[in-house]
Amino acid sequence: MYNIYRDEDYKWIRELLTYPQTLEKNLNFFENTSQITIPDDPIERVIFQDKARKAIRKVAQNKGHLLLVGKPGTGKSLLADMFNHVIDKSLGDYIRPKEAIVGYPGKDQNHVRIAYANPEKIEEFIDMVNRNIDHAKDSIEEFSLDKQIASLKKVKTALLWTAGLSIAAGIFFPPAFILTGLSGIGAIFIFMQENNHKVQEKIQQETQSARSANVKHLLDLVPEILHDPTKDSNLMIRISEPNSSNMKGGFRHDPYQSGNLQTPIHKRAYIGAHAKAPIIYIDELKTLVKEGYMSSLLEIMQNKKYILEGGRHTGSGAADRSENYLKADNIIIACCNHDTLRYLQEEGDGAFLSRIEDKGEIIHMESSVSESRENISQTVQYVKQEIDSLSREFEHTWGTIIEKEGHAGVRRRSEQIFGKKLPLNYKLRVREFSRNAVAEIIKELRCRASDRKLSCILRPINGIIKTAELEAIIENSEFVEPRHIRNALREHTSLEGAVSKEIFEHKKDLKKYITSMTDSIGYVVGLAVIRSRASGQMFGMPLPIHCQVNAGGSDIITAPGKIGEIAKAAAENVRASIKKLLYRVGAPYVGYEMHIEYIQAHDGVEGDSASVAMNIGLISDYIQHPVSQKYGITGSLTGEIILPVGGATEKVRSIMDTDLTMEGACIPWQNKLDVEPLLINTDFEYIQKEDVPGIRIYRTEGKRDPFDIYFCKTKYNAYSILMGLSKEEVEDRITERSKRDLAFMKDMKMFTAEKSAGPSPPEPH
Predict the structure, then answer these.
(1) Were both Cys, which of 357, 617, 623, 751 would link to 547 (CB 3.0–4.6 Å)?
(2) Is the pLDDT of residue 471 over 70?
(3) With contact defined as beta carbons under 8 Å apart, do 242 and 335 qualify?
């Protein structure tokens, strides 16, 4: 039998076994992370992004713009902060605003005049003006109603005398009592008026509103400092939701629009990021696109100035605007993902991108980097940085408690948090990572990428490092060890990871049930992944598939359920490959109905990585030969060749759980490098089944629970592993089946013809 593998192929597989020693050699510059020093240069603390670091230094030299494009978690925000740091240290004293922005009354109540002035001088000037106005206000005579009150007292006294005299006269002349009543009522009314004047006088004297009203026209002319650079020394303003209000500025609503109490326009004006900060960091361009601010930003980037306008179409502020321009010579730093980049390329023929490239650079953030010694060293540095960050967090949260209550108090409080007793010598201090623990982090970065690369999406790894730290602290271990990392990986998962874990538990029971209930003919265990939208991480799981081939009828293939376009095309490709095989072996052609079912794949299937699994399932049912349910398989089938697929490491790792009772997997030959991270901190050896090379990994200490991974170049290699049949045996059995089907179809046609012709007439005697 022809062997498609060459001697070099077997050599390459054996070389994979040296990967742990190679990694150990690249990590031999330290025993634990306490020996690692963090660079003083903040930009060098951003790992894996060498191209971006160089671009930042270059763009900072000429005050250019930056657009950082990449997946979440690759360090875009961190690089923007580092750019700000570099500019601050190098050109900060030169580009930092030195003039205050001052608003003056304009030509009418809807216009404001903008001026730039020395902050100290303008503040002194405004203080002087306010002092003079206060002096003028104090010079105004105190509010008094003494004259009105004195006249009322005279009238009251006269009425009281009249009432007294009328009482005396009434003794002798009774009608005089009428005058007594009228005089008494009048005295009471005058008394009330007198008290009302006294209260009004007191209120006016306490509030001095009369004085303020007299000088209001002067107060309305006092300039307003809209921005004082001495009170805001930051070079960069971070904008999370760019719109006209927080980028340009505007005019606040005036609640006192009537009664001569209007707030002057220059006291209602406020300015935005363009006028205040030399550097504007737009955290996510997608929000800018949604807000419709792109056209304004392009205009300001071009002209470096703008008119301050009211942002409302109607109501207060609709007609407000500045008489002159505000300066806006900004450095724009923006971040976006790839979907927003596609929009920017189309919007205005890429006008925004053109302005960025004109005086700056568009930086594509690396999503994965090669596993070189330099990048491994950067990974170690990154772990050390996270350890130091956690140490600062502990100090910030627990520092006062440690100072007042000691570590015993921390232990007592921590026991309330964790709900269990902690060791008596428990101390809340960070643990350094051992060399093997760092190797586990590198293993995880390798598993989340492919083709011997490390993933650059580091934000999810931060949580894993911190969770592992807490595991080691609770255990009171001297160092963080690989077991702590593995426990952290089980506990710290994304939303998609949690969903994947739940689905995996269901698929585990489903797979066991199918295996126990069927003869395994037409059934095959494919491998699938769920990809996290947030982190890009992939989570593998088994994908049971059932295939069935029926002779006769139209030559079609059906795959029910929510199956994507790529998966449909893969199914059609499988049908074409089987038809080609029938033609090549000279088997009589018969029409076949091919049915493919992804068992309980409720959320649908997309991609072509199950095409080789579909092929094996169809061939199994066609030749009525069982498929081993102890092996999973993944690969993209093109003709006879199995091509590489994404997420191979995660797919294999997902079925290595001993509870699943799987014994191995078949993966494409070109995915062989994706097995390397699975060899870290474990036992393994080279294996070979017939011509197909592989690696056996022991899942349990003491070289127990072996798991075999085979590297297949063609579908015939997969046939030999999963069905134990050679290429010749498969082709012979296909030929036999097609001949039987052809004979069956002929018999059916004859039977149908005889039945349609009816009974023969009786022969004459």
Answers:
(1) 617
(2) yes
(3) no
